[in-house]
Amino acid sequence: MNHMNFNSRRILVTGASSGLGRQMACQLALQHHADLILVARRQEYLQELKVELESSAGIHCQIIVADLSQPEDVERVFVDATAYGEVYGVILNAGITHFGKHFTLPWEGFQTMLATNVTSVVRLTNLFVPYLLERNSGGGIMYVSSMAGLLPVPYQAAYAGTKAFITNFIQSLQQELRDDPVSLTVFSPGGIDTAMTQNSKLKFFENTALLQDVVPCAHEALVAMASRKLLYVPGHLNRAQLFLTRFAPRGLVGLITQSTYKKALASA
Ligand SMILES: NC(=O)c1ccc[n+]([C@@H]2O[C@H](COP(=O)([O-])OP(=O)(O)OC[C@H]3O[C@@H](n4cnc5c(N)ncnc54)[C@H](OP(=O)(O)O)[C@@H]3O)[C@@H](O)[C@H]2O)c1
Predict the structure, then answer these.
(1) Which residues does ligand 1 sit against, CB inside 6 Å?
(2) Residues 68-113: pLDDT tens digits?
């Protein structure tokens, strides 16, 4: 299959109100001249972005205000997105985390995380993959997972579990679809300088050298999606770290993360 070409195509981005999703939406509009379907809960942020991108990039933005932890909103996202024109690309980026001991995450909080990070993603996959296959336009879906889906991450245990699900689910599903005209890409960043890390109050995130800037991260994500990579980790440092972990027992990798987070959580 040829590379994806976003020009004048409609691309849906979940979690477009902030951070990585917002930045991917900006680059899709300004650099690729794509029309956008922006999804998130905070309507005012989506509206502001729509006005900004429609005037600066001359593209069209559709807004869908939806809480992806709610099954009926997830169904509505598919119905509304496909009602006004053909969707060519889907970026399932919305996600939430919890920093801290697993047992400090209330049960309702875990259920919301599971519904947002996993259930909505599987449901939208079940809806969009047959849709894209039927259109045979060579479209694709990108899943924003995390390096936390590839490594043990104590003090983000449930989050790491949700991202591991997505990473393994999509890598498996892609093999079922390998002869079909649709591509699935798992994008797995390390730390990114967004609200997710800024709001965490963890001291080591103040050292932004440990965090990738959102602009190059979004750029790498769109290149990975366009070139139909199955799994892509952005940033040289992240890839070097991941390479080194191949030679260390998983227990040791988990222990190093545990001691870094434990100190940071104690001083938070
Ligand atoms: N930041 C990092 O270090 C990092 C590292 C690896 C992977 N990631 C992943 O990158 C993705 C984007 O995160 P970010 O860093 O850009 O964080 P962010 O700035 O907090 O953005 C999260 C986005 O998800 C949306 N969202 C959250 N819950 C939602 C819900 N129930 N329904 C609809 N939208 C919802 C938020 O919009 P509303 O609040 O307006 O709904 C927001 O637009 C996430 O999947 C995250 O797991 C982040």
Answers:
(1) 14-15, 17-21, 40-42, 45, 66-69, 93-97, 116, 144, 146, 189, 191-192, 194-197
(2) 999 999 999 999 999 999 999 999 999 999 999 999 999 999 999 9
